[in-house]
Design a protein that fits this description.
- The complex is a heterodimer of chains A (536) and B (131).
- With 536 residues, chain A is of the alpha/beta class.
- Chain A is 26% helix and 18% strand.
- Chain A has one domain (3-534): FAD/NAD(P)-binding domain.
- Chain A contains 13 helices and 19 strands.
- In chain A, the strands form four sheets. In chain A, strands 1, 2, 5, 6, 7, 8 and 19 form a seven-stranded mixed sheet that branches. A six-stranded antiparallel sheet of chain A has the order 4-12-13-14-11-17. Chain A has a four-stranded mixed sheet with strand order 3-16-15-9, covered by helices on one side.
- Chain B has one domain.
- Classes of the chains: A alpha/beta (536), B mainly alpha (131).
Chain lengths: 536, 131
């Protein structure tokens, strides 16, 4: 067994960035990964726009509803059920290898190449200095790291009213993507009424997205074909698998997929990583000088607890409460639908009630079309025929606001690992996640404020939907940052407490989760952790 | 009627009712494969309702309304949604499913349809009483 300099576990947004940082600095890196890929749908979607495909392609059902109809939710809708057939590979082998039991928390985990980054909505928000401080992160270093990440992945956005909440001081931003009629109408209304909305703490602007509007290397500018839920045409939308594929070309990087990392063992000079092969369950062991875990905070918690034989030990967890508000803009009812449409967020609406940029609530605003009518139709209390007539009329006006709320830990939010020899890894993660009455009240208050603000913008909320904790796919805080060198904590440099050579590059250390999308901050932190790991 | 003939008749009636067109062979075959899912296999009572619709195709509108209004989790409703999804993703019916432009006055038409829908749902519920 050769001793490797660095092992990075996981190929998602944090793993890819940590590995890229190490490789660019000349280190020898081995990436261990689940490595699941899509073998059924990649490459079968024609290079045409959504409406042209709908009009012309005989076998479009294959990618819109699935070769085995996996795009049609038959029973109760669970987290991940909404993934389109071409994205379902993200969930392959997860129930067997990452068993999770909870009746209050419904997360999404992945063993795929690129991890949850394959389904990332691309939002790139910088946390404010106050938010970074509360999350346990160093503001000066994070601001440098945000720029480093931006330079590599490519971010588009505007320095408009929401610049201070999104891309802030970043240089080299690409221009924002074009809006479709849903976004344009809402934004025009905002421009007319912004002084009153601003007084109430609401700011609207173009989102900063890891989406290219200009060519960057081999990746091409976004083409507005409205197939964003199905495939990554021209690599315009950033996916961490692109970084991993690039790294594979480097001589100091090796990738090994088809593995689940189960635990590690540390000696004075090295770290052994014990894995199992997904296909045949065979044990495989690796040894390195330094280990960087970037498997998302839930899996990292599993590996750390297992490595310390700490079954039954409770660790904290934080996840942004998430709700969404399906809404209608009456002005657009029955109007012509755009040919050039966008599946990503068109606008961001921030609620900064005390104007301090610390307790901000964030909403991303989307239009709806390419997810097909049948998904909404099954929720309408009408016949399929009349229901569809209503939908056709309403579709151009349909606007969805996804709302993230800031979140802190608490005694009612924890996870623990319990042994179960019947399961492949030999245990299951049990999660309990309950908000306090005060937190529930605060979430409801914020939803109410957003409903009012949207009404001011002539956009009327039809319903409030709360899909359950964890469904927003923002998790963190299982091994919180601490200045003390303690077990199950991370030191500020990302090193695992009481360890010599084990680092954690995902969000496990964050002690606070602002409502702003956290992926950009996770990547910036992963870059910093990798730099720290490079130090002798 | 065997299971294959039943589902074949089912998608034919549904396609005609929804789009006004005859169902094509690919959509028919896809529908028959899709409804093998355990969530959409009919029990005795549900099967009798399907046989009733096949014998009396003109009642499908009443039953569709009634299921949507009162029994949204009924397996026949789920099969209609599957049929809808399959037809929606066929270019042959694109003209029916494509985005359209409507006049402002169309809202009045829809309101009238909504009222008609409620009445149909109530009428259909009398049929559902027996199934």
């Amino acid at each position: 067994m050769a001793l490797i300099d660095y092992i990075v576990i996981g190929s998602g947004c944090t793993g890819a960035i940590a590995a890229q940082t190490l490789v660019e600095n000349g280190a020898q890196v081995l990436m261990l990964d689940g490595g699941m890929t899509d073998n059924s749908y990649s490459g079968i979607i024609p290079d045409k726009d959504y409406l042209t495909i709908r009009q012309q392609e005989k076998n479009q059902y294959e990618y819109f509803i699935g070769k085995n109809f996996e795009g049609i939710p038959f029973g109760n809708v669970k987290t991940g059920e909404h993934l389109t057939p071409g994205r379902k590979f993200m969930l392959k082998n997860v129930p067997e290898w990452m068993p999770m039991i909870s009746d209050t928390f419904f997360p999404l985990e992945s063993l795929s190449l690129g991890g949850l980054g394959n389904g990332w909505g691309l939002g790139c928000c910088m946390f404010s200095p106050a938010e970074l401080k509360e999350a346990g992160l160093d503001a000066a270093r994070m601001n440098k790291a945000y720029q480093w990440v931006n330079d590599r992945i490519g971010v588009s956005g505007d320095n408009d009213d929401t610049g201070k909440y999104t891309s802030g001081s970043l240089s080299g931003l690409q221009p924002s993507m074009e809006m479709d009629s849903t976004g344009k109408n809402l934004y025009q209304n905002y421009q007319r009424k912004k002084s009153r909305l601003n007084q109430n703490g609401f700011y609207m602007g173009r989102p900063s997205l890891a989406l290219l509007t200009q060519n960057k290397g081999s990746r091409k500018a976004y083409q507005y074909k409205d197939l964003d839920f199905y495939c990554d045409q021209n690599k315009s939308a950033y996916r961490p698998s692109f970084t991993v594929e690039d790294l594979k070309q480097k001589s100091n990087f090796t990738y090994q997929g088809g593995l689940v990392a189960l635990r590690f063992e540390e000696t004075a000079e090295s770290v052994k990583v014990f894995c199992k092969a997904i296909g045949n369950n065979e044990p495989v062991t690796f040894e390195c000088r330094k280990l960087i875990m970037a498997t998302s905070c839930l899996s990292t918690a599993r590996i750390v607890l297992r490595s310390h034989n700490a079954y039954g030990v409770q660790l904290p967890i934080i996840s942004n409460p998430y709700s969404y508000l399906p809404s209608i803009q009456p002005y657009l009812l029955g109007r012509d639908s755009d040919q050039r449409k966008v599946g990503f967020a068109q606008l961001s609406l921030f609620y900064d009630h005390d104007q301090t940029n610390t307790e901000v609530v964030m909403s991303s605003i989307y239009s709806y079309r390419s997810l097909m009518a049948f998904h909404i139709l099954k929720e309408t209390p009408m016949s399929t025929r009349t229901g569809f007539e209503f939908l056709q009329y309403m579709m151009p006006a349909f606007t969805i606001a996804g709302l993230f709320h800031p979140e802190r830990g608490g005694s009612t939010k924890y996870l623990e690992l319990r042994k179960d020899d019947n399961l492949l890894p030999g245990d299951a993660l049990h999660i309990n996640y309950r908000l306090t009455a005060r937190e529930i009240e605060k979430v409801a208050h914020n939803e109410h404020q957003f409903t009012k603000a949207l009404r001011q913008l002539n956009c009327f909320v039809l319903k409030k939907m709360n899909p359950g904790h964890g469904s927003g796919i923002h998790y963190a805080g299982t091994l919180p940052f601490s200045d003390k060198n303690e077990q199950f904590k991370l030191l500020p440099d990302g090193k695992l407490g009481l360890s010599k050579n084990v680092y954690v590059a995902d969000g496990s250390g964050f002690t606070y989760l602002p409502a702003k999308g956290l992926t950009f901050s996770l990547m910036a932190n992963a870059h910093n952790v990798a730099l720290n790991a490079l130090m002798p | 009627m065997d299971e294959n003939s039943l589902s074949s008749a089912e998608i034919s009636i549904y396609c005609k009712y929804l789009t006004g067109q005859e169902v094509d062979e690919q959509s028919r075959a896809l529908f028959q494969r899709a409804i093998q899912h355990e969530e959409t296999v009919l029990n005795g009572k549900e099967l009798r309702l399907l046989q009733f619709i096949i014998r009396n195709p003109f009642t499908i509108g009443l039953i569709d309304s009634s299921l949507g209004l009162f029994r949204p989790k009924h397996r026949l409703r789920k099969r209609m949604i599957i049929g809808f999804a399959i037809l929606e993703t066929s270019p042959l019916y694109f003209n029916y499913f494509r985005p359209r432009v409507f006049s402002r006055a169309h809202l009045l038409t829809l309101m009238a349809k909504g009222l008609q829908e409620a009445l149909q749902g109530i009428a259909g519920s009398f049929i559902l009483l027996f199934y």
